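A quick word before the example. In earlier lectures we treated sequence and structure as two separate objects. From today on, think of them as two lines of the same record. Here is 6-phospho-beta-glucosidase written that way.
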Amino acid sequence: MNKLEKTFPKGFLWGGAVAANQVEGAYNQDGKGLSTADVSPNGIMHPFDESMKDLNLYHDAIDFYHRYKEDIALFAEMGFKCFRLSISWPRIFPNGDDAEPNEAGLAFYEKVFDELHKHGIEPVVTISHYEMPLALVKNYGGWRNRKLVDLYETYAKTLFTRFKDKVKYWMTFNEINVVLHAPFTGGGLVFEEGDDEKSIQYQAAHHQFVASALAVKAGHEIIPDAKIGCMIAAMTTYPYSSRPEDMFAAIEQDRKTLFFSDVQARGYYPGYMKRYFLENDINIEFQEGDEDILRNHTVDYIGFSYYMSFVTSTDPEILGQVTGGNLFEGVKNPYLEASDWGWQIDPKGLRTTLNQLYDRYQKPLFIVENGLGAVDQVEEDGSIQDDYRIDYLRSHLLEAREAIADGVDLIGYTSWGPIDLVSASTAEMKKRYGFIYVDRDNEGNGTLDRKKKKSFDWYKQVIATNGEHLDY
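And the structure line, produced from the sequence above:
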């Protein structure tokens, strides 16, 4: 038997990931319409505020809109092979249902893609990432309305047609399962008293499934060599004890996430969800042809975020011991440490998640978000010694390498927030993820100057050696 090789494959896509609303700024420039993020000044866990009286860091973000060349040059210096970014839907269709796209918006992204290619960096584009035209919420009720399927399809086709020679990797929705956990952010859903919220959320998810499948269809037709994936917020759930009831509770918890990748990767609604809908009096309205659309246009790969694992229990007393996380919460795991924001750090859980997803789908996987939000200190000499971030990323990459040795087909890794950006969950700047520091604080003060952290050179080494040298 040959010696076991623990290496990242040749051509592995190393890079970083951002979202338009968290980095671009210029929220009201060049014809862009208001987005749901533009009226969410306190982050996605809070109700939106159309008056926007509170400070909204999303409005200016880190000004990537005007500084993208400087930032891409820094990514190139690190050796990025790819860069995951999203396109702002209201920058292309300000109201979502406009007769023609906004040329200034299309031209901006064309310049960004050209700049990436100039540096040999492959764009990986998310079509809808935690924002949508606010007008679609006001006029249609967000994704609860079937009309959005057609509007999204038009939007996707517009992008594919314009950028067919510049972008080969696409994802349809960011963390699509978040519609259950942050319905305004994930689906533009605003509830009124008496609404059957759970039914509306799952109906909105169905509309997104159909829209995603139609985007896969259009993408393959317009860009025959394109790879179009889904994207879920993934985490492994452990049973708190070895009680059989706890074990099945963990399975059920995982299924709340896996349902979203099941439909997009397998092309049909799984039996366990049909039972859930029956037992909870949830009736999903299918239009004629929906089943064929889902079945015939499954995704090419599964993209996912991984920040933490969770624990669940059937013991009410244990269930009271909750810990926070990326829009989710679970029972505190006594064996794990946590970040400053309570996100439990579990590198081994990434290997488990990779194996779980690959065993389930046998499709290529792409880790498109993984990172540590932390408070960084600028030292007197100007340096930022973020060893804690290096430790976090290194430990997760070691487990990703183990998963590859297990036989998992992993095509890439984009760390979340390679440059500091506005946090989605809390809408603050002090929760930093980047290899690059941005001089801006929670009050919106600062020069926006960029500064390399210690992790910058570490990640540069990781990429240069294709993940062979992870130490520092």
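Notice the following. The first helix runs from residue 20 to 23. We will return to this example when we discuss secondary structure assignment.
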